[in-house]
Design brief:
13 helices, mainly alpha, globular, single chain, 392 residues, two-stranded antiparallel sheet
Length: 392
């Protein structure tokens, strides 16, 4: 019994650490202990580690830590790719060794052994496609086409030259300091893929996230059906009610069944908790990127729009405040008017509340065209290369 509760506590602590690490910076957790755990995991622990190394080894130790940090964070490296393969391989191995002996079972046919292998294989294929495909590298050979395909909006993108590549910088592109190249329709650099996500491989990236979400859901449902099948095959409910005299009701049976499952199938339950957590994270990540794709916006552009709209709002507020101050001064210079009702002044809207800051995204062509552009990137179409003669 102590071992079972130890496993439950271990699972809950693992869940707390994962949520804090991956989601602790979300607005919903602001000011909570989850945000503090996130800060410790992402900054505090490493900062204490660096201080300890400097105290013990001096500047030579600090320089060595900085070199490792530079390689892991600022240079292309396959560490996270190896971690992904290790995680998916270890998870599949644990499921196979702990659960395949119950397939076929009461609710699952033997085909699920091969279906699970196929599902993982497709996931790895999408991973390889996203990792090793060209994200849309801008070169001197194709820059005229990209300049024609993505016109400047003169709001968040204006005509300029990349100071590193020494070529014109098309709208929506960005120079990735890690990959050391300009990428068209740049979204972000993904450490898990060791590659940029851009115009040509966003489709693979979205398929990768969606497919792994479905794999996690499939794993949770399949394991749940295996456990339900074991309950049926071993007649656990019948034994508990007939031999142990437990009332045949959900309230009476649930604690006993859960206790039995934790004791006999703790590995499957821990894997189900892990897959359920990952599926929630993937669902949120996919929803965010799907929203961006539907509005033909990238992660990089969303940050640019936030900065632009924030600046625009501050300018508008400053103008509105100046106009309100001028109006107040004019009223003081005029003849005294009858005092306004307190209720009327209370419910009157402030001039600042009436401000409306508009986002004018010229690249948004309607959600159907936006989806079409993600699935069939502009640089893969014949019309894209037909612009060479026109540009030249």
């Amino acid at each position: 019994m102590e071992v079972q509760w130890l496993l439950v506590c271990h699972g809950l602590v693992t869940l707390l650490v994962l949520v804090s690490f991956l989601c602790g910076n979300w607005p919903i957790f602001q000011g909570t202990f989850i945000q503090r755990i996130h800060f410790f995991l992402t900054f505090g622990a490493y900062d204490y580690f660096r201080r300890f190394i400097h105290f013990v080894c001096g500047s030579r130790g600090s320089n060595a830590v900085n070199s490792v940090e530079y390689y892991f964070c600022d240079r292309p490296n396959p560490i996270l790719q190896i971690m992904y393969l290790g995680i998916i391989g270890a998870t599949y191995y644990l499921i196979a060794t702990s659960s395949f002996s119950y397939i076929p079972g009461y609710y699952l046919s033997g085909q699920h052994r091969f279906m699970s292998f196929l599902a993982v294989g497709v996931g790895i294929l999408l991973f390889l496609l996203t990792s090793f495909s060209d994200p849309g590298t801008v070169t001197s050979a194709n820059v005229p086409q990209y300049l024609s395909a993505y016109p400047y909006d003169n709001i968040i993108f204006s005509e300029k030259e990349c100071s590193t590549c020494r070529i014109s910088k098309p709208a929506r592109s960005k120079h990735c300091s890690i990959c050391n190249r300009c990428v068209a329709r740049f979204d972000h650099h993904c450490g898990w893929m060791n590659n940029c996500i851009g115009e040509r491989n966003t489709r693979y990236f979205m398929a990768f996230i969606l497919w792994h979400f479905l794999i996690c859901i499939y794993g949770v449902v399949a394991l749940a059906l295996i456990l339900a099948g074991r309950l049926k095959e071993l007649k656990v409910i019948y034994i508990l009610t007939e031999y142990y005299g437990i009332e045949n009701s959900f309230r009476a049976l649930a604690p006993q069944v859960v206790q039995w499952l934790l004791g006999a199938y703790n590995t499957q339950i821990l894997i189900m908790m892990f897959l359920a957590l990952v599926s929630l994270l993937l669902a949120g990540f996919f929803t965010y990127h799907a929203k961006l794709c539907l509005t033909n916006t990238t992660t990089n552009e969303s940050f640019k729009w936030q900065e632009h709209l924030s600046w625009q709002r501050k300018v508008s507020e400053a103008k509105a405040s100046a106009e309100a101050l001028k109006a107040s001064l004019d009223e003081l210079g005029q003849e005294r008017k009858p005092q306004e009702s307190k209720w009327k002044s209370f419910f009157r809207r402030s001039r600042l509340e009436e401000l409306e800051v508009v986002k004018n995204n010229v690249y948004d062509r309607g959600f159907l065209n936006n989806i079409h552009e993600v699935i069939f990137p502009l640089s893969t179409r014949r019309s894209f290369w037909a612009n060479k003669s026109k540009s030249g």
